[in-house]
Each structure stands twice: as C-alpha cells, then as structure tokens.
Design goal:
By secondary structure, the protein is α/β, with parallel strands linked by helices. It has one domain: 3-Layer(aba) Sandwich (Lysozyme-like), CATH 3.40.80.10. The protein is built from seven helices and six strands, in the order H-H-E-H-E-H-E-E-E-H-H-E-H. It is globular, with a radius of gyration of 17 Å. The structure holds zinc ion. Zinc ion (ZN) binds next to loops. The site of zinc ion has 8 residues, from loops.
Length: 270
C-alpha cells in the first residue's frame, strides 16, 4: 500500500479527465442501477470499444463468470473490520470505474486476479486509519480513497476491510477485476519471512482463488500488474503506472508456496 498509499496505489483524478467523463453522480448511480438489474446488458461502454487498450474479448470487463469449483478449501478465520463505504464512496468508485475502465458499476463481479501488496506501515491500526477516510490519495489525488479488501497483520490476523462485492482502489489497471490483499510490513522479504503472516496469507489466497476459480498464475504481486493479461486502463498517463511491492522474483516464491499448499479441494485444507 504505501507503495500503494503514500507512493500510489491507483487511480488519478486530474489526468482522469481524458476520455469518458462520468455524468453527475445521480445519473451515474441510476445507470449503475440499470446495469445491476439487467444482466443481459454488457457493462462496457461504447467508448471502450474504440479504446486501443481495451482488454481482449476473453477477459473483457463485464464478461460472464466461469463456473465456481464445487469444492473449495475451508475459509480461514477473518475478522470483519469494514471501512466506511457508503453511498458517496460507492458513487465515487462508480465514477472511477467509468473513467478508468468504461464500466458502469462499482461492483466487483467474478474477480479474476488476486494482487499481493505490503503496506509500509508498522501495524494494522495505522493501516486502517489510512484506508478508512474517503480522501484523495497522495499520489494520484483521486477519489474514492485507496483501500484493500484484506489486510493481514504480522501476527497472522486477517482483517476484511471491504466486501468482495465492491471494487477497491489498490492497483491501477486491475481494480475492475482484482481482489487486493495487503500485508502489514515494509518489504517483500519481511512478509515472506514472517511465518504467521505467510500462513494466513496463503490460506486466504488459496480459499479466494478456489472460491472464484482464479488460476495460480493470476495471483500476482503489485509490481507484476503491467504484465497481467487483465490489465486495462483508459487513462493513457496511467498505463505504465505500477508500484514496487511484490516483484516477480518474490512472487515466484509466493506462488510456489501456494502451489505446495494444495489445489482446490476440501482435502488437506487444514
Ligand atoms: Zn501495492
């Protein structure tokens, strides 16, 4: 996050003006409600069809979900510490989704990617205080405030900050389809060497990827965001924006451990 918060997690207000500007909040929400009630309608705008950086058809925003595996590992213990995400923040998330993805919804439907981060904070309390306020981020100066779906503390406690049904600003180009998992800490190495934190992280990630049918290769580090086949960003100035947290070499270690934990069956989920 710090890489994500202080330094920048996502979005960008000023530059975002290029391209599709959302209508008023009321109009946007009305549009969103129509989208939510009409599943036959693709959630992609006309503007996106002309966007050279639109995702490939097979991975386009708004595509139907794949089948969820019949059996998934047991859900790890999760402490609910939801940050305020009321009507205003949802409207801002909707406006962000329109600007950056051409999607008329703030909802996270059928996530296809899990992004791993570290916070650059010393504890959960300070992390919560950064994510809870709905204020422009310090890097891109855009609303809504940045966040993550989960934060894993040094002692292994898994905190959920945002429901999985809502998009969260944690990774430019991927917020439309990615679950964000933050780890309290200051480096990839610190997190990877913390046994309690890693145990919880791997259990959570395994449960999530099995629940949503997410391939192991789509569990990525923030620093790998630009090479994800799901990366999509309408704002030209942000198409090469990423952060330093969880580089490829360290994610190879993470994915190897995740693979060793087992596949998507209930057996051995511990
Ligand atoms: Zn990050």
């Amino acid at each position: 996050m710090a890489a994500c918060l202080a330094a920048a997690c996502s979005g960008c207000g000023g530059a975002a003006g290029a391209g599709a500007r959302p209508a008023s909040t009321r109009d946007a929400l009305a549009h969103d409600n129509r989208t939510l009630t009409d599943r036959r309608s693709p959630a992609v705008t006309r503007g996106q069809a002309a966007d050279n950086h639109a995702p490939r058809a097979a991975t386009a925003p708004g595509r139907p979900a794949r089948a969820v595996p019949a059996s998934v590992p047991r859900r790890p213990p999760i402490v609910q510490d939801l940050i305020p995400f009321g009507a205003r923040r949802r409207a801002e998330m909707l406006a962000y989704a329109i600007r950056h993805y051409g999607l008329h919804t703030y909802r996270l439907r059928h996530p296809q990617v899990i992004v791993i981060h570290y916070t650059e904070t010393p504890d959960f309390a300070s992390t919560y205080r950064i994510f809870a306020p709905d204020v422009p981020d310090s890097e891109l100066h855009e609303l809504p405030g940045t966040c993550a779906h989960f934060v894993i503390d040094r002692d292994g406690t898994i905190h959920q900050l945002v429901p999985l049904s809502i998009m969260c600003r944690h990774t430019v180009g991927l917020n439309w389809t990615a679950i964000g998992i933050e780890h309290v800490g200051f480096s990839d190495a610190q997190v990877l060497s913390d046994r309690a934190q890693m145990r919880s992280s791997l259990r959570l990630t395994r449960w999530l990827r099995c629940r949503y049918g997410i391939a192991l290769s789509n569990v990525i580090g923030h620093n790998e965001s630009l090479t994800s086949r799901f990366h999509h960003e309408r704002v030209a100035a942000l198409r090469t924006q990423t952060h330093d947290d969880f580089v490829h070499a360290d994610m190879r270690v993470y994915r190897k451990r995740l693979r060793a934990l087992g596949g998507c069956t209930a057996a051995g989920s511990g």
